[in-house]
């Protein structure tokens, strides 16, 4: 892995978190492969269309910490803590969800894109 790869992946993940937090679906569309497999901590798995469609109904602030990035040629594995802070709404109180996330990124001509995501609860 080069420092350039790690920096590019850090930027891509920062942009992904910003796009989720601001519901910038156009930016997310560019950061995700068309073949995306997104598995939530609940075990529900969605394709790209399903994942993007579901984001609008659950506003949140998404942040990351303790990221570890390993690059294997044109593929990268990213792990670390993902924190979703959900504001209070008429339907639910405010809550914070802290998860462990595993992501697979692939290098494409336009840059790094996330191909897979899986989250699990933290003990």
Proportion of residues in helical segments: 25-40%
Whole-angstrom Rg: 14 Å
Mean pLDDT: 93
Main beta-sheet strand count, sense and barrel state:
6 strands, mixed
Shape: globular
Please give the number of β-strands: 6
Describe this protein's structure.
- The chain is of the alpha+beta class and 123 residues long.
- It has one domain: Nuclear Transport Factor 2, Chain: A, CATH 3.10.450.
- Helices cover 28% and strands 48% of the residues.
- The chain contains 3 helices and 6 strands, in the order H-H-E-E-H-E-E-E-E.
- The protein has helices at 3-21, 25-31, 48-55, and strands at 32-39, 45-46, 61-72, 75-86, 95-108, 111-121.
- The chain has a 6-stranded mixed beta sheet with strand order 2-1-6-5-4-3.
- A hairpin with a 2-residue loop joins strand 3 and strand 4.
- Helix 1 runs antiparallel to helix 2.
- The mean pLDDT is 93.
What is the topological layout?
Layout: H1 3-21, H2 25-31, E1 32-39, E2 45-46, H3 48-55, E3 61-72, E4 75-86, E5 95-108, E6 111-121
Parallel strand pairs: 1-6
Antiparallel strand pairs: 1-2, 3-4, 4-5, 5-6
Helix pairs in contact: 1-2
């Amino acid at each position: 892995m080069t420092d350039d790869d790690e920096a590019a992946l850090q930027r891509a993940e920062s942009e992904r978190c910003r796009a989720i937090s601001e519901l910038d679906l156009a930016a997310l569309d560019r950061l995700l492969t068309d073949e995306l497999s997104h598995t939530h901590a609940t075990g529900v798995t969605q394709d790209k269309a399903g994942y993007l469609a579901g984001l609008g109904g659950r506003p949140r602030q998404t942040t990351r910490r303790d990221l570890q990035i390993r690059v294997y040629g044109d593929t990268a594995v990213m792990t670390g803590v993902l924190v979703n802070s959900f504001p209070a709404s008429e339907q639910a109180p405010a809550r914070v969800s802290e998860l462990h996330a595993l992501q697979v990124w692939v290098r494409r001509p336009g840059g790094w894109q996330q191909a897979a995501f899986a989250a699990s609860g933290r003990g």
